[in-house]
Structures are given as structure tokens and as C-alpha cells.
Design a protein that fits this description.
This is Peptidase MA-like domain-containing protein. The chain is an alpha/beta fold. It has one domain. It contains 10 helices and 6 strands, in the order βααββααβββαααααα. A 6-stranded mixed beta sheet has the order 1-5-6-4-3-2. Helix 3 crosses helix 5.
């Protein structure tokens, strides 16, 4: 299976680097990917996502930084294909949602509180623009995460929303509801969930600096952040067997994009942070 951990680069490439975006709130429409709570999502994303077809509920993380949206019915139900009880503690909240909340908050604590990165831009501060474009801002200032069946080949993505001009944009995250077809056990799925939450949250943080940064650096530094938050997971090892650019094909550019190279290129920020200091990665982003 051709598994793509993250589809954020494709979204940015299609809707930003191609020049197809650039709309403002006054235009009255949104050609960029919109949230699963907005009708017609599949038509705007080229298949990147879809609108929920069953009633949606949400769970606010206890620490208060995230609102996680999901449905209790249909193919989008959290953990639907994991083959284990979806609510093992019988508290009314699916285990997948509670783990998402836990992992996102851990990622926020590491990246923003401990390492000093900016928080993701708040969507609710642009509520008037969202409303005028017929979009959903999630109802408050918590960062919105949507759980749904993204597809067997994708773990998740972060969608920037150009409700204002400029390169600093609010966004939302979509995470697959069980990683079915990619991970066969609950522990494997939860490890991928850890890596994916850290990765996608860092994309949202990147959009507090420059949404138009080079794709290779967006992905390399997002994989690097996985290592800062969940050092024991080492999901990026899965890419190294396909990565030969620094090892045997030195003519390949650091910014090569082939669906693998830009992720396995995490060796570059790992080298920088180990040779100098992890703060060098934040310094690079502050100069973006």
C-alpha cells in the first residue's frame, strides 16, 4: 500500500504554491479545503476529505487547548475497525478521542510551553470572516481537530484557511479514525497516533510563521518535532530505507519531493539540533 503519513504538503502545493488561493472573506467562497462540518467538503479537497454524514459531537481536552470533533455512527466512528471496545472505561467518550486529546496536549506542552514556539493562530478571532464566507470556525478559540475515515493510505492533514490575507493563517486538523489497513494492532495504531498528533500540530504551529515555507522544510521539521515529543516512537525509521539522498545519491537536492524523501530528510534538522541545539530549529522558523 502507498501510505502517505501526511497530506498537508499536497494541500499547500495545490491551493497555495499553485496560486489558486488568494481569496479573501469578501469573495464569498472558499476554494481551499474546508472542515468536515461544512457541506461539500469532498468537492473542495479533490478527495482529501469529506463532510460528515451523521450527527457530530465534540470533546474538549481537559487542559483547554483542543476541541475534538467526531461522530458516534457510521464509517467515521472513532476506532471503528480496531476490533476492541471503543470506550473501555465506559465514560461515554471513545478511547480514540481521549488518546487524541492526551497526545495533542502533550505535543502542545512540548512545542509551545517548553520549547517556546508560537501557538497556532486562533480561528475564532476571525469569526466575522468565517461567517461571511459560510465557513465553520468551531465555535470558540480552542484548536479544532476532526476525526473521520480519511482513507487507508492517509494518516491525517492540516488545512490552513485563508480567511485573511498574508502568510500567517488559522487552520484545522483532520486525523484518521483508526489507521485501518496500515496498523494491525491497537498499540501500533496508538504509536502512529502519537506521531501524527505531534506532526500535524507542528504544521499548525508552522502556519503561525509562514504557510508558504518550502515544502521540504515543512515536512522535515514536522517529523523532527515528532522526535521531540514522542522520542520512543521513531516512526520516521519507516522512511529511512527509501532515503538515499544523503547516503548514496548525493546529487539529489535536499528539497527533493517524492513522497518519502521530504519525510526521511528529518536527518537534516536532527543533525542541526544535535550538533548545535534544538533551539536552532525555532530560530530558523523565526526567520521564515
Amino acid at each position: 500500500m502507498d501510505f502517505r503519513r501526511c497530506l498537508t504538503a499536497e494541500i499547500i502545493q495545490s491551493f497555495y504554491h499553485s496560486g489558486n488561493l488568494g481569496v479573501t472573506a469578501e469573495s464569498g467562497n472558499a476554494p481551499f479545503p474546508t472542515r468536515p462540518t461544512v457541506p461539500g467538503e469532498a468537492g473542495r479537497t479533490g478527495g482529501f476529505g469529506h463532510t460528515y454524514t451523521t450527527p457530530v459531537v465534540y470533546y474538549d481536552s481537559p487542559e483547554g487547548h483542543f476541541r475534538i470533533w467526531y461522530t458516534n455512527n457510521g464509517a467515521d466512528r472513532p476506532g471503528v475497525n480496531l476490533g476492541v471496545p471503543s470506550d473501555s472505561d465506559n465514560n461515554g467518550i471513545p478511547d480514540w478521542i481521549e488518546r487524541c486529546s492526551e497526545y495533542f496536549e502533550q505535543s502542545y506542552q512540548t512545542a509551545v510551553v517548553s520549547m517556546g514556539y508560537r501557538s497556532p493562530p486562533e480561528d475564532f478571532s476571525f469569526s466575522a470572516q468565517y461567517t461571511s464566507m459560510g465557513l465553520d470556525h468551531g465555535g470558540d478559540g480552542r484548536y479544532d481537530v476532526y476525526i473521520q475515515d480519511v482513507g487507508a493510505s492517509i494518516a491525517g492533514y492540516t488545512g490552513p484557511e485563508q480567511v485573511v490575507e498574508g502568510r500567517i493563517l488559522p487552520s484545522y486538523i483532520v486525523i484518521d479514525n483508526d489507521f485501518s489497513g496500515v496498523k494491525n494492532t491497537v498499540p501500533e495504531a496508538l504509536e502512529l497516533l502519537q506521531a501524527t498528533t505531534a506532526h500535524e500540530l507542528f504544521h499548525a504551529i508552522q502556519f503561525a510563521y509562514d504557510v508558504n515555507e518550502d515544502i521540504y522544510w515543512l515536512e522535515q521539521s514536522a517529523v523532527w518535532m515528532e522526535e521531540q515529543v514522542f522520542d520512543d516512537v521513531n516512526d520516521h525509521y519507516n522512511y529511512l530505507s527509501t532515503f538515499t539522498g544523503f547516503l548514496s545519491e548525493s546529487w539529489l537536492s535536499l528539497d527533493t519531493r517524492n513522497g518519502q524523501h521530504e519525510f526521511a530528510g528529518v536527518l537534516w534538522p536532527l543533525y542541526l539540533s544535535e550538533k548545535y541545539d534544538p533551539g536552532i530549529i525555532r530560530s530558523i522558523w523565526e526567520l521564515a
